[in-house]
Design goal:
about 525 residues, alpha/beta, eight-stranded mixed β-sheet, 21 helices
């Protein structure tokens, strides 16, 4: 990594990439770049960064969850680790679990922060205050030291909002906009599955902040494990991700045959544990490692020797991986919809996460089929005249696709639950995540993007629900409406809080009144449909 940073990352960052000789790229002729190089950029672009007050902190970890760039993180320290931490490290007793003997620290990477203040704005106890970056430079060494610690298993798990934030984020320090609404979702997915996930990423904002060469924000842990990420074209990302899944499935099917050939051998117990958990992303990891270790330390003969050698040849594929397909609404609703429809119809076990900004964000804000009626965008300068496509309804019509619509700022627990259910579902899943964007023109500012998500749900502009086909197999209603009945009196005020809608009043007042009334009407129709599906 040091060689890569010195010879490629730094020169490109200083706009001297055209002076790098071709020979420098010989070791990367296949296009594979080392993960985690974004951590070496340390851009220091923020004017103000958060200062933590440990005396009032509730240790809820919401700040960490919403941080678009993974620069603020909770750490649970043993007494020995706390004693070895830099002298200016702030710690307090960990509140949950009580009497654990652990210390709690909230660390901030000052030089990676963009100063959006999302963390301070969601803090329920106002324990984070934005201060000039120069006053917080002494906290960078603290972050650099403590971020290397392994997550403490006493507190780190995938069970709750609090516990997930002790897990390592495998997406950090990206080039996303300050206050980005997309990255918190992707980051959370990596915290849950990052050490065992493949990502196919559609071209768009998520591929730009996800991998603008040579910077790589997807990273690895102390064991070298992390997401395998790749970007295909704009239009074929769903097929690209399906191809990833089918390729690993074919390899693993062969490895399962190899394991069966060894079921009566000296490694019979390890083979049984491996095959019993073969389709479990979490459950298969340890058995796969145990089987690999047993095969490497056991002598075989004949057919068993051939099976063991064939298994070890592709041992990196032995454990079950979590296949994800990331992209924006321009891809999912529009240019790549045909492929997405083909992939969910296939019935294969892939997970699709759509960052719905309701506009082509990366290319300057063109209208997409996700753009709602009345919204001003390129190619809809007078406000879009037709309503938004209901991608979720199309997916639900198959009956065997897991579908969820989420908004982290409105309901963090529902977001976590939907991601976990989607990944656990043995079939295609589609999660549509509401993502405020600079193209929306939030009058409150992007530092309040999480609040904007809550406002969108509260007023009825966006709805939260989950469609889980496994419930139908149990004789239950597969559709769950998670958001409460909206306060429709707040709807028009919500629209006026975003320039994409409010600007229409200035440009075409009469048309604005007509179209934005339709925006509300269509939202009510959608909500009526969802309440009927939920049996309410």
């Amino acid at each position: 990594m040091e060689k890569f940073v010195k010879e490629i990352l730094d020169p490109v960052g200083h706009q001297k990439g055209d002076k790098i000789p071709v020979s420098t790229f010989v070791d990367m002729a296949d296009g594979v770049y080392p993960q985690g190089s974004a951590a070496f950029e340390k851009r220091g672009i923020a004017v103000d960064v958060p200062e933590w007050d440990p005396t009032t902190c509730a240790q809820c970890n919401r700040c960490s969850m919403v941080c678009p760039h993974a620069v603020i993180r909770p750490v649970a320290l043993t007494a020995e680790q706390a004693a070895a931490a830099p002298a200016n490290t702030k710690t307090v007793d960990l509140k949950v679990p009580k009497d654990s003997g652990l210390k709690y620290a909230l660390i901030v990477s000052t030089l990676d922060c963009t100063g959006c203040a999302s963390c301070a704005n969601v803090c329920p106890t106002k324990s984070l205050t934005m201060k000039p970056i120069a006053s917080q430079m002494d906290q960078q060494p603290v972050f650099d030291a403590l971020v290397k610690l392994e997550p403490n298993k006493t507190v780190a798990s995938d069970n709750t909002i609090v516990s997930t934030q002790y897990l390592k984020p495998y997406l950090e320090f990206s080039g996303a906009c300050a206050g980005c609404g997309e990255t918190p979702y992707a980051k959370l997915v990596t915290q849950l599955y990052g050490d065992k996930m493949y990502v196919a990423n559609a071209t768009g904002c998520s591929s730009i902040w996800g991998g603008s060469a040579p910077s790589t924000p997807y990273t690895v842990d102390n064991k070298g494990n992390g997401p395998a990420w790749s970007n295909s074209l704009f239009e074929d990302n769903a097929e690209f991700g399906l191809g990833m899944f089918l390729a690993q499935s074919q390899i693993r099917a062969r490895l399962a045959d190899d394991a069966l050939a060894l079921k009566d051998s000296a490694v019979a117990d390890e083979v049984k544990a491996y095959l019993d958990t073969f389709e479990s992303t979490r459950g298969n990891d340890a058995p796969a490692k145990a089987l690999i270790a047993a095969l490497e330390n056991t002598e075989f003969e004949g057919a068993e020797k051939a099976a063991a050698e064939d298994f070890l040849k592709d041992k990196d594929y032995a454990a079950k991986k979590s296949q994800w397909i990331f992209g924006g609404d321009g891809w999912a609703y529009d240019i790549g919809f045909g492929g997405l429809d083909h992939v969910i119809a296939s019935g294969e076990n892939v997970n699709i996460l759509v960052f719905d900004t309701e506009v082509y964000s990366n290319t300057g804000g063109q209208a997409s089929k996700a753009t709602p009626v009345g919204s001003v965008a390129q190619f809809a300068a007078a406000g879009k005249s037709v309503k938004k496509k209901d991608l979720a309804a199309i997916a639900m019509s198959y009956g065997y696709v897991y579908v969820a619509q989420v908004a982290m700022g409105a309901d963090k627990n529902q977001t976590l639950k939907a991601i976990a259910e989607a990944e656990a579902y043995d079939g295609p899943s589609l999660i549509i995540a509401y993502a405020p964007c600079i193209n929306h023109g939030l009058k409150a500012g992007m530092g309040l993007s999480q609040k904007e998500e809550k406002l969108a749900v509260d007023c009825g502009y966006w709805h939260l629900y989950r469609y889980n086909p496994t419930l139908e197999a149990e004789g239950k209603n597969p559709f769950t409406l998670d958001s409460k009945e909206p306060d429709w009196t707040k709807f028009q005020d919500f629209l006026k809080g975003e320039v994409r809608f409010a600007s229409l009043y200035k440009l075409f007042p009469d048309r604005a009144q007509e179209l934005l009334s339709l925006t509300e009407e269509f939202a009510k129709v959608r909500y009526g449909t969802y309440t009927r599906l939920a049996g309410k």
